[in-house]
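Repro:
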Amino acid sequence: MASTSASEGRRLPSHDASPAGQLGDEPAIQTDNYALTILGLMLASVMQVLDTTIANVALPHVQSSLGATTDSITWVLTSYMIASAVATPVTGWLAERVGARQLFIAGVTVFIVASMLCGAARNIEQIVIFRVFQGVAGAFLPPLSQSFMLDTTRPSRHSHVMSIWSATVMVGPIMGPVLGGWLTESWNWRFVFYINLPIGLISLFLLITYLPNRPKTSRRFDLFGFAWLAIGLASLQLLLDRGNRADWFEAKEIWIYAGLAISGFWITAVHFKTANNPLLDMSLFRDRNYLIGFLVMVSLSMVVFSTMALVPPMLQHLQGYSVIGTGMALMPRGVGTIISTQLGGWLMKKGVDIRVIMTMGLVVTAWSLWDMAHWSLEVDMWNILIAGFLQGLGTGIVFIPINILAFSSLKPSQRTDASSLMNLTRSLGSSFGVSMATVTLAYNMQVSHSDLAAHVTADSGGGIIDFSSVDRFQAYGEAGIAMINAEVTRQASMVAYIDDYYLMFWLTLLSMPLMLFIRPSKPE
């Protein structure tokens, strides 16, 4: 067991004495067993990050098992995302008020219990309620794990420890569907939630034993700011998640969400600008490097998560891949991410200019998207593997410098708020990206289908089929027309996917000029 002094946390007196918050090369907080502390923090992050995507592939099985409707089953995902988005901004205040150690341990505990209750749910109402608790508890884990890892690590090792944390955050969503598909097909959809028990219990034991405390404060809770921010975030998340199903602004429901989101964010922005003690520290955005990191995170999240949402249905619906086969095809993306996160940390430690590293990563990412934009229905497994590996390599290289850049000149006391905002940005960026990709995919599919169908004429059969007299064959003729329409739809779908990959390619290129505004600093 950790000693009493370790569990209370030994904070150096020079906590905010320098821009980085430390004098020399000492961590802001000491822990008796650094390796096991980091392991406990990482396991908590793994558990939470996996859960953002692991349940997706199990939804059809959940729907069948619980007798849910197609519309109601989507709330299994929506409830989690809304709860997580609303709870994330209060992480900093809660960490200072009740204690970061206490909040982290409570978050892991509630997450484990809620996961078990989700697995044991007997109807759709129960699982949605338990997913809300899971989302709230899970919202605290990424920002607290990131800030604790920085606080307990020497500044000279920040790039290395962030490479480990970033690898988990990036690889988790990739591995989630693979693991979820395997558990669902080999066992039962309930094991998608039960898998959190062994991981969570090990993490909980290590955190209770070794995680140090951080000082508490009497920071006042900004109820007005939180209420309006929660309204804005919840409405935006509902708009993004429900928009495609409700036919977007053709439905009154979406107009209500849009109005509430705009009102909520407008009032929140004005309040945060004028209030004496706002919920979130807006002075963070006066730090140029944090602002650049924030903007790049938005762009990168949109590209990474939208592409991850596009490739699996393309492989399954157009290429005929199984769930497990799709997971295997996506595996090299995770391998590339693991390699590049370590490479990015190593390059920073060697003193390579952070702008060069990030630009290099964006170039590799753009290259992979350019290659994907030239796919066809005949694309083979090898091309899919290479493109996925390159994309994982590129995004992983960028992800490490973003986190180091964003926190490079912040005080340790600002890290929890800063990490909360970055994680919220990653979540909203992914929602924006997936929604944008879904909308453009549906629209381009319709346009492409119309364009291709216009070229199907009486001469399109090449002399084999006479379309002008196909009605003579009645049911056989209708079947032939249906087959032709199915092929046109298949070709149009591939064109639409290609258009989306082009969109992601240009979005990646447009983020490159931001590198010019980064203020270079000495590597930690």
